């Protein structure tokens, strides 16, 4: 109990003023939690404000077109979060009359809501006594109690949740959960935390055993695959170009992109030119040139994308082409959007 009370006292003195903390309404709380999954607060906050401005209620979000949702989400990454969020908004608005489930177990049934997000909404919006366990909480508990369980293991969540449950304040679960997450985000940070000013520097087991840098333990490494994307920006005499919607399941599902030649290995200009002429012989290609001097590297959680953009000028008028001026109206992966902006396409 001393740990929990000290933590709460620290939180009230050090907490950041964030808009979703000034309400107990489940809609903005849910929105913020989905956005902050694998995303820093500084990056997520502008998106949260934009979404709240565009979709003040769950009904507004539910009625929105998916392309509008994806366009606003552009740059935040992990786009499946946005698609799931949109579908869940429709269920809440149209099937549940705008009422969020008011408990952890029912929240878990919604698309895109896992154990962490369900616990966060249940405690922050409905004051349910359920611990929230995220990366920050793993780190604080692992260090304070010297827990050497691999946080990537299947048993970790159960063990850390049980530990957090022993510490949670039954009369104020929401504030306790906010406090321990904030402590991990601001004080007990992953690298080089300032333990000298920490409120727990006389009771933290990791500090006493000089194991702060070692904890928490995470052994499983994510295997990263390399992919090579060669994007083709076709241009006819009318300054129109071609884009496609990615309909197959994957990281950029339902986002737009230029026609692409994907390869398993890097290819040189001559090979690329030959492939373009073979695959698009009907367009009467006049010239091919590369935009970017250096290959663009775009890192994702499981993939490393090696990207080049090529200008492909054609004699024939492009069927289903769109004007260059209208490109910015479409939701693109951020790496393509940045290319459009940089080269004023």
TrEMBL record:
It catalyses: Hydrolyzes free adenine bases from 7,8-dihydro-8-oxoguanine:adenine mismatched double-stranded DNA, leaving an apurinic site. SMART domains: ENDO3c. Residues 35-186 form the HhH-GPD domain. The keyword Iron applies. Its EC number is 3.2.2.31. Keywords: 4Fe-4S, DNA damage, DNA repair, Glycosidase, Hydrolase, Iron, Iron-sulfur, Metal-binding. Signal peptide: none annotated. InterPro entries: A/G_AdeGlyc_MutY, DNA_glycosylase, HhH-GPD_domain, HhH_base_excis_C, HhH_motif, MIG/MutY, MutY_C, NUDIX_hydrolase-like_dom_sf. Its cofactor is [4Fe-4S] cluster. Belongs to the Nth/MutY family. Adenine glycosylase active on G-A mispairs. MutY also corrects error-prone DNA synthesis past GO lesions which are due to the oxidatively damaged form of guanine: 7,8-dihydro-8-oxoguanine (8-oxo-dGTP). This is Adenine DNA glycosylase. It comes from Flavobacterium chungnamense.
């Amino acid at each position: 109990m001393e740990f929990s009370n000290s933590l709460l006292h620290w939180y009230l003195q050090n907490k950041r003023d964030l808009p979703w903390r000034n309400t107990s309404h489940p809609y903005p709380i849910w929105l913020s939690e989905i956005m902050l999954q694998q995303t820093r607060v500084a990056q997520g906050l502008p998106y949260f404000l934009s979404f709240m401005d565009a979709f003040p209620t769950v009904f507004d979000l539910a009625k929105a077109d998916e392309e509008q949702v994806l366009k606003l989400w552009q740059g935040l990454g992990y786009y499946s979060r946005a698609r799931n969020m949109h579908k869940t908004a429709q269920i809440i608005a149209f099937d549940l009359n705008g009422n969020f489930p008011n408990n952890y177990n029912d929240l878990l049934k919604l698309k895109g809501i896992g154990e962490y997000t369900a616990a966060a909404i249940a405690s922050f919006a409905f004051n349910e006594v359920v611990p929230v366990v995220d990366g920050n909480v793993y780190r604080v508990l692992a260090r304070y109690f010297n827990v050497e369980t691999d946080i990537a293991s299947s048993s970790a969540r159960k063990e850390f949740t049980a530990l957090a449950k022993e510490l949670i304040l039954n009369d104020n679960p929401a504030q306790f959960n906010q406090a321990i997450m904030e402590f991990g985000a601001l004080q007990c940070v992953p690298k080089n935390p300032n333990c000298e000013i920490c409120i727990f520097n006389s009771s933290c087991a990791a500090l006493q055993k000089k194991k702060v840098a070692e904890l928490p333990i995470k052994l499983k490494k994510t295997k990263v695959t390399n992919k090579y994307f060669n994007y083709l920006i076709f241009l006819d005499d009318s300054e129109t170009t071609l884009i496609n919607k990615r309909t197959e399941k994957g990281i950029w599902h339902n986002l737009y992109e230029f026609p692409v030649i994907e390869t398993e290995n890097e290819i040189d200009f001559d090979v690329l030119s030959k492939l373009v002429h073979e695959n698009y012989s009907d367009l009467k290609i006049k010239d091919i040139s590369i935009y970017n001097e250096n290959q663009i590297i775009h890192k994702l959680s499981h993939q490393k994308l090696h990207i080049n953009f090529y200008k492909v000028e054609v004699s024939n008028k492009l069927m289903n082409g769109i004007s260059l001026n209208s490109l910015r109206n479409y939701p693109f992966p951020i790496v393509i959007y940045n290319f459009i902006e940089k080269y004023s396409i």
